[in-house]
Amino acid sequence: MTQERGASALIVAGAMVFILGAAALAVDTSSFYEDARAIQTTADLTCLAGAAELPDTAAAITSAADIASLNWPEKALSAPSISGTTAVMSDGSGNTVTISASHGGDPNRMSVVVTERAETDFAGVLGADSVNVVQDAVCQASQATGGAGVMPLGALGGTFSGDLFDCAAKISGNCGALAPVGSGANPWRDALEDGVDADLQKHHGNWTADDPHTGNPGTECTSAGQTCNAFDTESGNMTGPFNQGMANLFTEIAGADCVEGGDFNCDSMEQVLGGSAATVGSLWSTSPPADFGGYIAPSGWQTSLYGPYSSVKNDQYYYNGTGIKCDSPRLATIPIVDYQSNSYNDWDLGDPNSSWPAGTKLMKVIGFYTVYIREPANRNDVGNGGGNGLNQIVADVVWFGPDATCADGSLFAPLGSIDVPAGVKLIAG
């Protein structure tokens, strides 16, 4: 009987160890799952925030690190220690966030690994005082596309009717050509064909005032030059270079649905956009939304920039669909410009000029249009590049919504867009 009692004691003791171990496992595992959910959220948010800045590695790491600290505040993480495209943050106690801004060598991917050193409550009886809880996330950014480029042609603020470079109807003044790459026929022709090689950013308000839309100081606009977003007019008759440049531009027919004469892109607006665009007037009879989905100034429609809404609403278009041929030569960006006849230091957006000046005058970029180039429609309109053609562009303004997407899946973000993010998604996490 005594022997049986001793055996029972051993069994009970063994069972208690098992029971305590199971309890420890159950309690601690539940706590670990809770920790895992919390740090997975941190990993996801950190990854998404950083990926929105890609492919700018430095900006991506900075943004990700800021979000990591905000969403894991109890860990007192250090500033990121950066090595190449990888950054590590630590609180010195085994809790770390590892940010990789070029995951797998892809500049548009980011990975985040969050490791938490979790203390055990009961598992210490089994010799486990702590465990590492590890969660990770991988994100991908599809970068926004801005279209084929900026043409060295200007639309006067508040007066644009769709006619660009109107040398055919010119009575006085210049034709509407800008000289952002230096004067001369050949550089201007090349810029017409290939787009302007300049860092353009609109600046509203007076030259020396802060831009009310971006908050950027206007002191950089106290002198002329590219950093000031001001360009001279290209004076003289530019019809020869114009026709040559347009002929060269529209022989770039990759992906064209419509080819005229064997070598001239004649895509319709519907073919370029990938669907039918409605006039803005048919969608918003009185006034458009304040920001058109983020693609015009946040204060809404500005008459001094775009003209009276009532006069243009039935001639301008809105598209928010997919399948856009974002590299089509018929889809272009046109600067909206104005000039000051005497001194650019008091140049006021609210008083646009209605006609082009004569001679060489300084023009200030005050906004942008994205346009579909309707004419020249065929080779005959450019006189075979010899200067005997239409001598004119007829363009339709197209506004794009926040879901407008290129055929390759990237968002379409016209130049001058307000706060257009990259398309960012979690692909693991």
What does the secondary structure layout of this molecule look like, with pairings?
Elements lengths: L1 H50 L5 H15 L9 E3 L2 E5 L5 E5 L8 E11 L10 E13 L12 E2 L6 E2 L13 E2 L5 H10 L35 E4 L5 H11 L9 E2 L3 E2 L3 H5 L4 E2 H4 L19 H4 L2 H4 L4 E3 L11 E9 L22 E14 L17 E8 L22 E6 L1
Parallel strand pairs: 6-14, 13-16
Antiparallel strand pairs: 1-2, 2-3, 3-4, 4-5, 5-17, 7-16, 8-9, 9-15, 10-11, 12-13, 14-15, 15-16
Helix pairs in contact: 1-2, 3-4
What does this structure look like?
This protein is an alpha+beta fold and 429 residues long. It folds into 2 domains: 2-142, no CATH class; 155-420, no CATH class. The chain has 8 helices and 17 strands. Strands 6, 7, 8, 9, 12, 13, 14, 15 and 16 form a 9-stranded mixed sheet that branches. Helix 1 crosses helix 2 (57-71). The two termini are 60 Å apart.
